[in-house]
Design a protein that fits this description.
- The structure is a single chain.
- The chain is built from 18 helices and 14 strands.
- Helix 12 (about 290-315) packs across helix 13 (about 345-355).
- The strands form 2 sheets. An 8-stranded mixed sheet has the order 3-2-1-4-5-6-7-8, with helices on both faces. A 6-stranded parallel sheet has the order 11-10-9-12-13-14, with helices on both faces.
- It has helices spanning about 15-25, 35-40, 55-60, 70-80, 105-115, 135-145, 165-170, 180-195, 210-240, 245-250, 275-285, 290-315, 345-355, 370-375, 405-410, 430-435, 450-460, 470-475; strands spanning about 1-5, 25-30, 65-70, 80-85, 120-125, 150-155, 175-180, 205-210, 325-330, 360-365, 400, 415-420, 440-445, 460-465.
- Bound molecules: uridine-5'-diphosphate-xylopyranose (2 copies) and adenosine-5'-diphosphate.
- Keywords: NAD, Oxidoreductase.
Length: about 475
């Protein structure tokens, strides 16, 4: 029986290994992590991450061929294939601070693998890492040579949160990069055989190590670039009276462009896009490619601009002051169907409004009060660092309350901001919400999920990203 061990039971490691276990009953999969609470949660009825369909997959395999353990060294020593899916946070100090990936966790995982191994192993990079990481890892692994053969592969994960199970079950492609040596190719074939249990062969792409590492950064940069492109257009739409949804539809009909990932929004979030682009920018800079670095940096800058622009719209529409006004924030997760708040645009929007002394009442169906307060207290990039660096007991925010109901959040509010596109926000009784709000009642739809005309009929003053402006909003705008 082939044994797989995955170091890191996070958003990537957990679901990916669960899918491998489900599709390969003849393989034993152990997911290990240094975090005891995380492993305890994976072994309980309350999994540590919310992902549609994940519960069923985990329950079908757990204790059969899928195990979660904190006994990292034992399981690494026993495995034939070791996936490494540990955090690679953005550095917050030192060289490359604010851009470069911090490989501390990766390095310590690699050193541990080298120390405990007694048999040949394939070590697979699963977390997104800077190009050429494999080379560094290879050096660490082979340095303590005890006659053990290590083969390094890069197998970046392309799953998106909220659709992880679907993406894993039917991936657009699986990418495996390896050394072009006989040993490297043998390792590639061994990993290919794992995925071939359920992924059609023509979807399993094999490349050299560096192409695989760079493809992951490139794919995320391209996806984020589409969002920044449509968001840049949304600003122009608002100025010209065009409708960004109509523009996106017309543009997306061109088969060379395609319709996906063209939804204008308050900004992209998530653990990957910004981080990976900043990392790409850093790699370009290190290679003397200033213009290329500058090109990709713009994608992040437009994203920051879009979040700031949203806050400015809110403040200027409400007579240039939100001081002491209650504003409901509907949605805090970085997108729907996840409880993940990493780099969510909600954090920047809330900070912007709090800076103008608004009173926020926040509701998200999947994010706890503790998490929201911790996020609002955290410094940029701290979310990916160990828990002891993060604020443990969130400082009391007098201006923030977190509630468990959209009607409660909007009661007596002056304005409502939709930050996450949760389906339930489309189905709310907006007449009831309007009746219970201060007048004039404002709605700022950061996700274009609401029916603007219907809301205007009720009496709301409505702003929706990239849509023709409400005459009211237009008259009150300062320069955006
Ligand atoms: C373009 C648009 O495609 C068309 O829809 C619009 O109506 C007019 O402008 P055109 O300029 O005729 O059409 O040619 P196109 O095939 O788009 O190529 C434009 C340039 O891009 C060419 O120099 C081409 O060589 C280059 N190109 C295209 C690349 O360098 N790489 C590519 O992948 C595609
Ligand atoms: C992304 C990539 O899609 C995935 O392939 C990679 O493995 C990890 O990073 P994820 O961050 O989970 O996945 O979510 P994604 O669906 O890509 O959304 C990222 C952000 O972009 C979200 O905040 C989302 O709301 C936003 N978005 C997405 C838009 O604003 N408009 C769109 O059209 C699409
Ligand atoms: P991702 O989104 O890439 O999956 P996460 O931050 O969700 O990243 O998960 C990474 C996991 O890796 C965390 O649970 C962390 O505790 C774990 N981890 C980090 N370093 C090690 C290590 N040396 N050994 C075992 N687990 C580790």
């Amino acid at each position: 029986m082939v044994k797989i061990c995955c170091i890191g039971a996070g958003y990537v490691g957990g679901p990916t290994m669960a899918m491998i276990a489900l599709k390969c009953p003849n393989i034993e999969v152990v997911v290990v992590d240094i975090s005891k609470p995380r492993i305890a949660a994976w072994n309980s009825d309350e999994l540590p991450i919310y992902e549609p369909g994940l519960d069923e997959v985990v329950k079908a395999c757990r204790e059969k061929n899928l195990f979660f353990s904190t006994d990292v060294e034992k399981h690494v020593a026993e495995a034939d294939i070791v996936f490494v899916s540990v955090n690679t946070p953005t550095k917050t100090r030192g060289l490359g601070a604010g851009k470069a990936a911090d490989l501390t966790y990766w390095e310590s995982a690699a050193r541990m693998i080298a120390d405990v191994s007694k048999s040949d192993k394939i070590v697979v990079e699963k977390s997104t890492v800077p190009v050429k990481t494999a080379e560094a890892i290879e050096k660490i692994l082979t340095h303590n040579n005890k006659g053990i053969n290590f083969q390094i592969l890069s197998n970046p994960e392309f799953l998106a949160e909220g659709t992880a199970i679907e993406d894993l079950a039917k991936p657009d492609r699986v990418l495996i990069g390896g050394r072009e040596t006989p040993g490297g190719q043998k390792a590639v074939e061994a990993l290919k055989a794992v995925y071939a249990h359920w992924v059609p062969e023509d979807r399993i792409l094999t490349t050299n190590l560096w192409s695989a590492e760079l493809s992951k950064l490139a794919a995320n940069a391209f996806l984020a670039q589409r969002i920044s492109s449509i968001n840049a257009m949304s600003a122009l739409c608002e100025s010209t009276g065009a409708d960004v949804s109509e523009v996106a539809y017309a543009v997306g009909k061109d088969s060379r462009i395609g319709p996906k990932f063209l939804n204008a929004s308050v900004g992209f979030g998530g653990s990957c896009f910004q981080k990976d682009i900043l990392n790409l920018v850093y790699i370009c800079e290190c290679n003397g490619l200033t213009e290329v670095a500058h090109y990709w940096k713009q994608v992040v800058q437009i994203n920051d601009y879009q979040k700031t622009r949203f806050v400015k719209r809110v403040v200027s529409s409400m007579f240039n002051t939100v001081s002491g006004k209650k504003i409901a924030i509907l949605g805090f997760a970085f997108k729907k169907d996840t409880g993940d708040t990493r780099e969510t645009p909600a954090i920047d929007v809330c900070h912007g409004l709090l800076g103008d002394k608004a009173l926020l009442s926040i509701y998200d169906p999947q994010v706890t009060e503790d998490q929201i307060k911790r996020d609002l207290a955290m410094n940029k990039f701290d979310w990916d660092h160990p828990l002891h660096l993060q604020p443990q007991s969130p400082t009391a925010f007098k201006q923030v309350s977190v509630v468990w109901d959209a009607y409660e959040a909007t009661k007596d509010a002056h304005g409502v901001c939709i930050i996450t596109e949760w389906d339930e926000f489309k189905k709310l009784d907006y007449q009831r919400i309007y009746d219970n709000m201060q007048k004039p009642a404002f709605i700022f739809d950061g996700r274009n999920v609401l029916n603007v005309e219907a809301l205007r009929k009720i009496g709301f003053v409505v702003y929706s990203i990239g849509k023709p402006l409400d005459p009211w909003v237009k008259d009150l705008q300062v320069s955006i």
